[in-house]
Write a structure and sequence with these properties.
mainly alpha; 10 helices
């Protein structure tokens, strides 16, 4: 295995783990553990900022608030790993340009990956400085998933740059369906991020009903308004339960739509002899993600399961990228 291939593989796995670490930070309410950026109260580590953190804890009346030493370390650990990831992606870009003749690949994707991680860094800063606005936090999640997707495609190019599962004429319908599946999963991930960043996951504690009804009372006016503060309407009022219910329930409907689309895609993959293994992988990951989603409702969002659900979303995205790559034939070589 070449050094470039190893670097891409390691960076892809680290990005997946970082997405789960980010979910852990968010779900433990540690996103403002260090309320400035890039340091912690201007210091390199929470240990160096112990005095400032102690003062903040005293002002907020205890460690139940947004700032505490454990929360500060969670937040900074996420930043340290993200910074390391950024340097790895710079390394990938540099190597892609230096080895472009040897790899016989355009360095364009690696270059766009560098710009994506720079934008993601900006979203990381805005997440803190804008006090966890739902739109910014959701954008940060989208950025992480985008980087994971780009790295996955880049890694696949190194593992089998000319592989195709069947003659292209046999896969034209699958290509369209695979793209539709990818878009559906991406949209559902965004909806899931909106649920998480608005803390709407526990507004429905029963399944398959929500608040005892198959169509609970919902208000959509403020639920999906992008420009607003966390827990507030655009006018600054408290976001009511009906709005949170709308956010949660639309995510459930989205899950049904995605399941239908991916089920049809899996069936189409199964019918093609060259893509049966992809059908099995897709069904397995989809079933796992559905089970974790239901489990989060039934068991009232246990931390480990909520973090795993985020990881499952990332894994489902990777699976759809794999499907799209395999059915794309040789055309991916121009990317």
């Amino acid at each position: 295995m070449s050094s470039y291939k190893r670097l891409v593989a390691f960076t892809t796995v680290l990005t997946f783990l970082l997405i789960m670490l980010g979910a852990f930070v968010r779900l433990t309410d540690a996103g403002l553990g260090c309320p400035d950026w890039p340091g912690c109260y201007g210091k390199l580590t929470p240990t160096h900022a112990a005095e400032e953190i102690a003062q903040a804890v005293e002002i907020q009346g205890g460690t139940h608030g947004p700032v505490s030493m454990p929360k500060a370390w969670k937040e900074m650990a996420h930043r340290y790993v993200a910074t390391f990831l950024g340097f790895l992606i710079i390394g990938i870009m540099v190597m892609a340009w230096k080895k472009r003749a040897e790899l016989k690949q355009s360095p364009a994707l690696a270059t766009w990956l560098f710009f994506a991680v720079c934008l993601q860094g900006a979203f990381g800063a805005w997440t803190v400085t804008m006090l966890l606005k739902p739109a910014i936090v959701t954008g940060h999640l989208i950025g992480g998933m985008t980087i994971l997707g780009m790295l996955t495609w880049l890694w696949l190019r190194q593992t089998s740059p000319a592989r195709t599962v069947a003659p292209p004429r046999d896969l034209s319908g699958l290509r369209v369906l695979a793209r539709v599946g990818f878009v559906a999963v991406a949209a559902q991930i965004i909806l899931g991020g909106w649920v998480s960043t608005n803390y709407a996951a526990v507004v429905c504690t029963d399944f398959p009903t929500c608040q005892g009804s198959f169509w609970p009372h919902m208000e959509f006016k403020d639920a999906f308004h992008i420009v607003r503060h966390l827990g507030e309407t655009p006018e600054g009022e408290i976001l009511n339960v009906a709005s949170l219910t709308a956010i949660h329930f639309i995510h459930r409907i989205g899950a049904l739509v995605v399941t239908g689309i991916l089920g049809f895609l899996a069936f189409a993959l199964w019918r093609n002899p060259g893509t049966k293994p992809l059908a099995i992988k897709l069904v397995a990951v989809l079933a796992l993600q559905i089970a974790m989603g239901i489990g989060n409702v039934v068991f009232q969002l246990p931390l480990w399961l909520a973090v795993a659900h985020n990881g499952g979303a990332a894994l489902l995205l990777v699976t759809l990228i794999l499907v799209n790559y395999r059915v794309a034939g040789n055309r991916h070589r121009i990317s």
